Structures are given as C-alpha cells and as structure tokens.
User: Which sequence fits this backbone?
C-alpha cells in the first residue's frame, strides 16, 4: 500500500483499522509495521478522533425530560380520531357523491322495463348464415 492511499483511507475511515474495508486493513497493518511516517499519521488521526469524540455533546437529561413531557402533554391533549362509520366505508365505492350508483340503478330499471329482444328465439348466427348476411348487404 502506498502512503497516499493510506492517508486517504485514514481520512475516510479514521484511526481505528477495524472500521476500514476488510481488503485494505492487512496492507495498512503491513505499512504500519515498516513505516514511521504511517505510524505518525495514525497517531495524529487517533488524536483527532479522540478530540472529536470528546467534543460531541451528550444528551442533556433536563432537556430530554422537558421534551418527553411536552410530547406526552401534546399526545394527551389531541383528540382521538373519529371511528369510521358505515358512510366512510362506502365513500370509496360511491365516486362523485353517489352519481355512479344512481346511473347504475337507472340502467337497471331501463333494462328491466325495455321490451324483450327480437333475438331471444333460436337465432342462427352460424358462419354460413353470417356470410350470407354480409353478401346480401352488397
């Protein structure tokens, strides 16, 4: 491993070699065993990691308690959602406020009151009959 690659990985993954890609860690350990420059860079990165961990703010217990109390108060104050009634279950089935159901009912009434079809008997719709009907229209 070259020093440039070692420095890039050190900047990307930090000083803990356990967080490095598994394929790169053995080469980095070999470089650390033979290069004082790599050891110096690793120590500097370890110091930087330690400073970053120390500067990270921990949770403030009082602020966390206030936040939990506020959330609990808001949840207790909000009303429960209304229980869906039978109309709300039918709403997806009734687009346009029931217009589709009324149109369907009107079609049903119209079809039930219309006179019977002249084709209710034994109509001959075989292929020769259809060919004869087509030829007669020419």
Assistant:
């Amino acid at each position: 491993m070259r020093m440039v690659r070692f420095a890039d990985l050190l900047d990307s993954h930090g000083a803990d070699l356990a967080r490095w890609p598994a394929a790169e860690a053995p080469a980095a350990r070999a470089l650390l065993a033979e290069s004082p420059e790599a050891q110096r860079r690793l120590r500097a990165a370890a110091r930087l990691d330690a400073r970053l961990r120390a500067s990270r703010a921990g949770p403030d217990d009082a602020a966390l308690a206030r936040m939990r109390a506020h959330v609990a108060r808001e949840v207790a104050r909000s009303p429960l959602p209304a229980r869906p009634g039978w109309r709300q279950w039918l709403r997806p089935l009734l687009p346009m406020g029931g217009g589709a159901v009324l149109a369907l009912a009107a079609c049903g009434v119209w079809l039930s009151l219309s006179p019977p079809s002249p084709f209710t008997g034994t109509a001959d719709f075989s292929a020769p009959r259809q060919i004869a009907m087509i030829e007669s229209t020419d």
